[in-house]
Amino acid sequence: MKKYFSLALTVWFASIALTIAATPDKDAIMAKEKEAWQAFKDKNADAFKKLVDKDFKGVYAEGIVDLKAELDEMQKTDMKSFTISDYTAFSDEADVIVTSYKCVVQGTSGGKDNSGTFNCGTVWKKEGNDWLAIFHTNVKAEAAK
């Protein structure tokens, strides 16, 4: 019985170590997040598509979008700058990471000013060797009353 318990404990610790090793650290996933924002800002659809899943969904005040609609919006947007802060990332699965953060954006979309501070969240999923965004949302932060 002792052998089985010892073996089970060893397997359990090994699985935890593999899970930790497979999950990128906060800085690595934040770099992916910044890369996606930069690709959007630069209107670089090819770079953006390398960071998001083909079945991507975005949820915004204006509606729910798929990857095609996100790429269409990219072409209508003139983002001058973005700054990410208060970044958090957590995971309790080896192949999924959830992030939340604030992003200050300066720019226009469809000719209308869309500058402001946004509360954002992204779900990243590991597909093969790549981490891809499968879900993103952001909402403009309201001034404290």
- The chain-level mean pLDDT equals 88
Number of strands: 7
Number of domains: 1
CATH C-level class is Alpha Beta
Report the β-strand fraction as a percent range: over 45%
Shape: globular
Q: Helical segment tally?
A: 4
Rg, alpha carbons:
19 Å
Oligomer kind:
single chain
Query: What is the rounded distance between the termini?
Result: 63 Å
SSE succession? HHHEEHEEEEE
Helix content: 25-40%
Low-confidence stretches: 7-21
What is the CATH architecture descriptor?
Roll
Return the structural class. alpha+beta
Largest sheet, if any? 7 strands, mixed
The CATH topology annotation reads as Nuclear Transport Factor 2, Chain: A
Please provide a written account of the structure:
The chain is an alpha+beta fold. It has a single domain, classed as Roll (Nuclear Transport Factor 2, Chain: A), CATH 3.10.450. The chain has four helices and seven strands. Strands 1, 2, 3, 4, 5, 6 and 7 form a seven-stranded mixed β-sheet that branches. It is globular. 16% of the residues are buried.
